[in-house]
Description:
It is a single chain. The protein is an alpha+beta fold. It has a single domain, classed as Protein Transport Mog1p, Chain A (3-Layer(aba) Sandwich). 23% of the residues lie in helices and 26% in strands. The chain has a seven-stranded antiparallel sheet, sandwiched between helices. It is globular, with a radius of gyration of 16 Å.
Amino acid sequence: xxxAKMSVAGAVIALAGCSGLESDALLKALxxxxxxxxxxxxxxxxxxxxxxxxxxxxxxxxxxxxxxFAMFAPCSTLEVEGAAVAMSALTTIQFGPEQSAIxxxxxxxxxxxxxxxxxxxxxxxxxxxxxxxVIEIRELDDHVxxxxxxxxxxxxxxxQESEWRAFLDIAGRLATISVRxxxxxxxxxxxxxxxxxxxxxxxxxxxxxxxx
Length: 212
């Protein structure tokens, strides 16, 4: 049953990025490092792949493929030569454990759960419902999208309170995508929703065939 699995998936739901880097340090991490920029990362044992929207590259210092977590920033901001221009934002992806997929079997029930009293708790970065304002929850063809604001301290300094999040099933795992702008260049409602949609489509496409 859907809600019997909520306790398993709960830790995955409340994602907002787990890097302690300041935003400036994060966006400059790749050029000075020894790991080249990558537009995709294999997660776990390579059965799933994390990708960002077009023009985004993975930050190897903040990502942890063994834990199913990846963070992406604009390749152009990371000074990758010849990179396409992309929105100034950060995107994170977290894959849950095997058999944690939960959205496809009852997307309406999943969305209703997030609309209920426990929704703000599991969506909050701090686990405190009073820090979160859920603005919109939409049930779409292949995912559930949430638009929220969270006043809890951000794990990434300089990230805006507004966040766009999507929940979808990938290869038997619950995947959570988070999109956030920066206080210095915040995303508006339309831009955030559009970037989230791009991120969802990119992740589905990247996992349409088994990773190799």
